[in-house]
Amino acid sequence: MLISPHAGFMFSGPVAGKGYATIDKAATTVIILGPSHHEWFSGVSISDVDYYATPLGSVTLAKDIIAKLRKNPLVTFSAAADAPEHSIEVQLPFLQVALFSFSIVPIITGKVDAQAVADLIAPILTPSTLVVASSDLSHYHGSAEAKIIDNATIQTILSGNFDGALDACGELPIRVVMRLARTEGLIPELLDSRNSFETAHMQENRVVGYASIGYFKKKSK
User: Fold this and answer.
1) Whole-model pTM above 0.85?
2) Which residue range forms the structural domain that includes residue 114?
């Protein structure tokens, strides 16, 4: 499992790359959990398209898995949330470079309980499944202040405190992954943490924070 940022590649790409460099290249199914930035809705939305297209080619959806998930009343499709949403799409080029062959389950989270989403996903996890929580951290603070805020969020994640404070646009996806990781016995590890001033040298007084956190069977080297 992986927590990965979703800003423009020039800003969050260096941080995201640290996370994707660690994933198992044998993964064949990727569940991507992203927040809805544009539309309020209840439950979770799964796109009804056949594939996503990037400059690196097409990424197909795991239709059989999605069909099973749609039987749950939690699952819907919000076109208004799906069409403009970037949190899923930004992850795809990294996956296309890192993995040999895969399909995705793109899940946009709305107003929903984190444990309910974890319970939805848990039955479809296999050893060849990767789960990605797409999220940036704090927004539009000065760089020094952002580091303090983001460090507190990171410590909440690393501690596994389900009720701890998180300053992140993908708070819900992160809380889902935290719960799934506890069930699967995975250990979180911080791989990289920087903000947009540190990566792209832009607007030191108005930054966005990023972190890559991987979940592993045991502490990595």
Assistant:
1) yes
2) 2-216
Quick: pLDDT tens for 17-57.
999 999 999 999 999 999 999 999 999 999 999 999 999 99
Which CATH number is 207's domain given? 3.40.830.10
Does 221 map to a domain? no
| Exposure letters 95-124 (e unless 16+ CB within 10 A, then b) | beebbeebbbbbbbbbebebeebbbbbeeb
Q: Report how far residue 177's alpha carbon sits from residue 103's, in angstroms, rounded to the nearest whole number.
A: 19
Tokens read off for 156: 């909440």
DSSP helix, strand, coil percent of the chain (3-state; round to 5): 35, 30, 35
What is the Cα–Cα distance from 134 to 211, expressed in whole angstroms?
10
Give the largest CA-CA distance in the chain.
47
Distance of alpha carbon 136 from alpha carbon 34, whole angstroms: 10
- The count of domains in the chain is 1
- pLDDT of 219 above 70: no
